[in-house]
Amino acid sequence: MAAAGVTITQTPFFRTQRRDLWWAQWFAYFAGLGFLLIVYPTWALLQGSDYRLGNYLSPFYSPELYGSAHAWISAGRPSWWPLMIPFSAALLIMWAPAGFRLTCYYYRGAYYKAFFLDPPNCTVGEARHGYWGENFWPLLIQNAHRYFMYIAVVFLFFLARDVWEALWFTNPATGRIVFGIGVGSVILAINVILIAGYTLAAEPDRRQPRPLLRCGAAGEVLGVRHGLQRPAHELGLGQPDLGFIHRSLHPLMRDGRGPRF
Fold it and tell me: What totals of helices (H) and strands (E) does the chain contain, helices first?
């Protein structure tokens, strides 16, 4: 029996037979990611101030290598930093977590749709007429996601250390260091827990042994099956963004307040 030939034609750009408000979802992606990934992070990274209050340190600036008396290397700007470029301690370290986020499979699908209209939405015509893959620059960097993941795991220890330091306050009456829980302590703790869930459930480490989770078709580690992998990763994707954490602590740093309960 002869097979009938089928001719497939590409839908013109932005053309679709959909009658729903498909563009509303695209606009939500565009506006949300534009603010969370570009506008706010750029402002927060370049301001270089109001990122520390007492024992609270914004995750945007952790680990703090330069910039204050608590910095690991120096309280000032590095001598090798070009004078014509504004200095911010966050610029020295944020390339690592940003690289992990931007090369993430889930993030790619979101910002390809939002910024490159590739595609604008399901069954909506896109601009390009062929599949390029990620075999050429600058998209070739997407293949480094696994290596960014290894670096991101190291940052989990820095963030956990920040949570520990956020639990110790100086008593203004006695000058002694005492244990306490503040609003910032809770925010930083939630942040590192969710970031750890997102990082450790990432696809690049699917062949690495883990104590609780392993991504594999029939993989099982300590009785925890593959079915837990996706919920853990989705939970991580729902984490407060680093910009959100910085924004939450920002009023406390501006006003010089450190509420505790």
Answer: 8, 6
Residue 7 inside a domain? The answer is no
Inside any domain, residue 231: yes
Cβ neighbors of 120 (< 8 A, separation 6 or more) are: 14, 22, 23, 26, 113, 126
Domain membership of residue 70 (yes or no) is: yes
Full pLDDT tens readout for the chain, 261 residues: 556 666 666 666 667 777 888 888 888 888 988 898 889 888 888 888 888 888 899 888 889 888 888 888 888 888 888 888 888 888 888 888 888 888 888 888 888 888 887 778 777 877 776 666 677 777 778 888 888 988 999 999 999 999 999 999 988 888 888 898 989 899 999 999 998 988 887 655 545 544 433 333 333 333 333 444 444 444 444 444 444 444 444 444 444 444 333
**Count of domains forming the chain:** 1
Distance CA 87, CA 106 (A): 32
Q: Is the pTM of this model over 0.90?
A: no
CA-CA distance, 30 to 113, in Å (whole number)? 8
- Sort 193 into a burial class: Cβ within 10 Å, 0-12 / 13-18 / 19+: middle
**If you write DSSP's letter for every residue of 143-185 in order, what string do you get?**
GGHHHHHHHHHHHHHHHHHHHHHTTEEE-TTT--EEE--BHHH
Answer whether residue 164 is part of any domain.
yes
Please give the residue range of the domain that contains residue 114: 23-78+85-127+136-255
| DSSP secondary structure letters along 104-128 | -HHHHHHHHHHHH-SSSSTT---S-
| Strand partners for 66 | 74
Inter-residue contact 64 to 70 (CB < 8 Å) = yes
